[in-house]
Amino acid sequence: MFAKLKEQAAAQAEKLKEQAAAQAGKAIAQASTIAAAASEYAEASKLKEQAAEHADKLKGQAAALSARAQSVNFKTIATIAEVGVGIAKQTAEVGVVVAKQTLGVKSAEEKAFMAAGNAALDAEKAAKECAEFRDALHAAISANADAFLEFAVLGARLEAAGLPASPPQLYPRPGVAVVASDMTATARRLRPLAMTAVDLAGYGHVVTLAKVATAGISGVLLSPAFQVFVERVLPMLSRHAKNVVVCSTNRYGAREAELALRLYYLGCTEAMDALCRADEPDGHADDADDETLKLAAEWVGPAQWLYAAYDLPAPHDTSEWAAWYAAQQATHQGWITVACVGAASTEACVVPTYPAKTSFAAWLLAAQPEHQRAVLTVRGSKSPNDSDGLPHSVRGSKSPNDWRINFDSAPAPLEMNGVIYHVHGGMLQAARVILDECGCRAALTKLQDAGYTLTIVGHSLGAGVASLLTALLVGDFPTITCIAFAAPACVSEPLADALKPLVLSIVHNDDLVPRLSDCNCHQLALDLIADDALYKERFAKDKSAYYNYVKTLGKVQSMSHAGGAKEDSASEEMIRGNQPHSEASRGSQGPSASEEIRIELDDGADHLDAVGTAQTPETPGFRSQLHGSQLQLLAETTVEWPALVVAGRVVLLHGREGSTRAVAGDSRLPTLRRVVVSQRAVSDHNMDRYAMALRSVWRARGHVPTTTPPVRFAPARTPTGQWKACNVCGSDVIWVCAFGTSDASRVGATHNCRGCGHVVCAFCAPAGDRVAGDALGEFLTLPDRRCPLPSRGHLEPVRVCRPCSYDGFAM
User: Fold this and answer.
1) Which cofactors are reported in the record for this sequence (predicted)?
2) First CA to last CA across the chain, in angstroms?
């Protein structure tokens, strides 16, 4: 028993001994931790003291560096920068070497060398093509000039001997015209047939409704002529009416359509003011004398020769046919064509220069040996839009080459008589190309050496180029004169004054082209801003009417009593503040030009998308495309470029109260210092309108041509029984007919000119006829050249051939 207890006590003692040893170990560990912490604390205190000492030392060094930095000059900085550049160069060189070794990439120098080599090859190729173009034209025109001068000498000898002399045919009639018969031409000829099939199937009204819905309210309000007006104004106006922001739509053309509508309503405002205005613009200006009018009328024909050639339809729209037909026009007026370049509608008037081709205007050089005078006529530009139904002399070409010249309006220097002037850059370049690249200068020099005088004639773009040609040639041709119809603003005011003895510019009524300048467009932008209140009110009314028109599918409204317009007039008068857009007040309305002008429409303004939408306000999901938009018209404070004006003396053919008056002046006429917003500004640009206005002024002054009996019509058959050809073009009169060569087809194709009595075709004596086009069911509408002939007893417009229409001033 005792032994067992002893064993238990020993085990218990051993257990307690182990517990005591464990507790002792823990105590030793805690003591070691405490000792280590104490040691670390002592070390940290020491480090803290050392850090404080080091911080004080660094603070002193920083103060010294700051004081030193303040004493560093720019030269030291430049030196450091040079060192940095050198390091960058070395790094770049190392990078190039690495790139060559690893990726095989060519160095920048090698790439530049290759690019320069390619550019040199392109320039060499362009120079070769340009030289070939120049040499070919120079050789042909020089040969024509030599042949003409030889005939002039020989003709004078034959005339002295009493023998007839036939002039040389430098531009003979081409052979049979080549008609295109490829797949593209066939598909184009089938297109009118497909459209006819759509109409026959009963879907014609659907197409019409789709056009109305797509065009929107602008398609309803803006006539084709006014759309052409907008097309011509917007490129230059956009430089002065910037930041036209339509926030809620990205549709193409929305901004342009908004400006077009604003121009439309501004034109309506001016038209209403003109109806209430009794005074006449430029009423105190002097009238042009009769000699000036006769001088202008003498050159109406040459200004239209190239337009007649441009009207030739396919397949006669080639350079050979156009040059021949233009030469025919000159021949019938007693001129011999020496050179004709670019007359066809399909002919590109460009020189293959590098890096971009250079455009020039079509031109024709003709001469009269008996009078020893020469005429250089330059054709006007054409509109890019070829589907507006306007006459060719208004509408224009399918080629944009002429419009490249118009849009290149940056001023360029021109020296005349030792003085440097600023002129229209694109027109100056075109004039120099005609003289030097096309070989015109060499031909003119030969004519001058033979004693010929020179007159330069042009219309529209051709008038601007003609004015600058005069400035370029005045040193070589002291007796040079220029007649410019519808001349654009192309010279600075000092040069316009210097050209007064040489250049006579004719402006008809509200013609846009002579008024289309940066200064006038700047003022037009301010006028748009001043007209903003009236625009909002009138647009809201027309928009509501347009919604109703679309919703009712074009239902006709009943007549309304005129008294209902009084309230509208009164409200508009309140908006205008009893300040009409008169000639004196138009420029003074609105904010000053020296301020930055900004108009912001209210966010809640409800505008219709001018580009168009087929939906109405009642249609589910309708949302006006311009709702919540802001229109900003920012008018520039100054015009960046020098002001360009019409060159030389100016005769304004101004129609008022049923009669036309010829006002003499210069580019400072008040009516030329503003753009007249009207669709008549486009139609007044037509060369036919210029000719008719000259006749009207001449008749209004009491100058009645000598009365002669009406001419007898020439029979359509020759004594041998053959049908006579057209007296102008020499072709069978049925060449413009769609089909048929029988005698029945000649009934509507044979015409007689009321001026000369000769047999003519519909193309050479156009009166708005519809002639066959180059497709099934396609017809072309010719221009209407009819005019009254009081000397023949015809007071109403009658059919005359083109040459007689050119001489209509004397009939």
Assistant:
1) Ca(2+)
2) 169
